[in-house]
Amino acid sequence: MAEDFTFSSPNGDDHISKAVFKSRCWEPNISLTQGLDIELLIAKGDQAFIKYLGRTTTGKTFRNVELHRVRNRQIASIECFFGGSMSFPAGVESQKKG
User: Fold this and answer.
1) Would the pTM of this model clear 0.70, i.e. be above it?
2) What is the predicted pLDDT for the residue at 88?
3) Apex CA 43: angle with CA 39 and CA 44, to 5°?
4) How would residue 97 be classed by pLDDT, with cut points 50, 70 and 90?
5) What pLDDT is recorded for position 46?
6) What was the pLDDT predicted at 87?
7) How many CB atoms lie within 10 A of CB 62?
8) Which of the pair, 11 or 77, is modelled with greater confidence?
């Protein structure tokens, strides 16, 4: 991540710094995340639009869409879109087959 990295999301994160992103978003949730499956990746110039399905350690799933901007081979910013104010894990429950 770039030194001046910023992160924005619908949870009131409006261009927060790298340090705040790590402490508020990454560190509390990394132990809850089992993995991410990229479903769609569209890149143009210095931007990448990524849709992914996340799996939690409790068997739930969530889906996010993010716009990444890159500068000098480092992530300069991420805008995360997941609809509404939610706590982790967001929205999409594991679907039961049957």
Assistant:
1) yes
2) 52
3) 155
4) very low
5) 98
6) 52
7) 20
8) 77
Q: Residue 64: beta bridge partners?
A: 52
Query: Mean pLDDT across the stretch 16-37?
Result: 91
- Cβ burial of 78 (10 Å; 0-12, 13-18, 19+) is buried
| Gap between the terminal Cα atoms of the chain | 43
**Reduced 3-state DSSP string for the chain:** CCCCCEEEECCCEEEEEHHHHHHHHHHHHHCCEEEEEEEEEEEECCEEEEEEEEEECCCCEEEEEEEEEEECCEEEEEEEECCCCCCCCCCCCCCCCC
* Domain annotation for the chain: domains and CATH numbers: 6-81 (3.10.450.50)
* Phi, psi torsion values for 90, nearest 5 degrees: -75, 170
